[in-house]
Amino acid sequence: QKEVEQDPGPLSVPEGAIVSLNCTYSNSAFQYFMWYRQYSRKGPELLMYTYSSGNKEDGRFTAQVDKSSKYISLFIRDSQPSDSATYLCAMTLPYGQNFVFGPGTRLSVLP
Amino acid sequence: GAGVSQSPRYKVAKRGQDVALRCDPISGHVSLFWYQQALGQGPEFLTYFQNEAQLDKSGLPSDRFFAERPEGSVSTLKIQRTQQEDSAVYLCASSFPGSREQYFGPGTRLTVT
Question: What does the pLDDT look like over B83-97, one tens digit per residue?
Fold first, then answer.
C-alpha cells in the first residue's frame, strides 16, 4: 500500500461544476498538506498549502484536511476548461523537508 | 530569473551513457530538491540541499545517481551508466529554508534507449 493514495481518474465534468478531489494517507505524522496542479509537460504548480486540520479558501479553491480520518480534499468551484490538468496532493512531516506525493488525479473540464 | 529553470528540457541517452541535468533555482532560495516522476505517477523525492550541503540523499535509487551544488546555487544531477528504468521526468524544486512552499521547474524528460 502506498503512503498516499489518489483516484487516478480521469474525472470528466461539465464547465461550471463543483469538483471534489481527494487523497488518503497512512502516516498520521504528516502535518503539512499541499495541492499542486500539473499541466501536460510542465512542472507542478503550487495551488494550496495547509497546516494540520481545517479548511483554507483561495478564490475558487478550498482545501480541507481531516487528520482524524487521514483524508484531504480540494474543491474547485465554477470549474473552467483551463482547470483541466492533473492534480497532485503532497504532504510532509513536521520537521521533514521532502514531500510525499500522491499519484495524481487527471481532471477534464468540458466546455 | 522569475522561476526555477532546468536544462536540457529533453535528453535522449543510449543505455550506458552518462547524463548531467542542470537546475537553476529561484534567486534567494537556499533549499533545493530533486524529484523523479515516472509516467502517470507523482514525483518521488531523490535528494535535498540546503545551500551547498546535501542534507538528505535517501531517495537516490542507486549509486549511479549523484547530485551536487558546489556553490549553493546551481545544482547538477548526474546519472552514470544510464539504464532504461531511469527514463522519467526529473524535476527540480526550490524554497526558502523551512518553508513548505516548494516551487518546481519544468523538468527534464530523460529517455534511455
Answer: 999 999 999 999 998
Under a CB-based contact definition with an 8 Å cutoff, are residues A52 and A65 in contact? yes
**Interface contact flag, A44 B104, Cβ < 8 Å:** yes
Alpha carbon distance B49, B37 (integer Å) = 19
Kindly state whether B53 is in contact with chain A, defined as any CB-CB distance less than 8 angstroms: no
pLDDT in tens, A8-60: 889 999 999 999 999 999 999 999 999 999 999 999 999 999 988 889 999 99
Q: Which of B42, B101, B107 sits opposite A88 (nearest CB)?
A: B42
Q: Which residues of chain A lie closer than 8 angstroms to B91, CB-CB?
A: 43-44
Interface check for B25 against chain A (CB to CB < 8 A): the answer is no
Residue B16 phi/psi, 5° resolution?
100, -15
Q: Which of A101, A89, A86, A106 is nearest to A34 (CA)?
A: A89
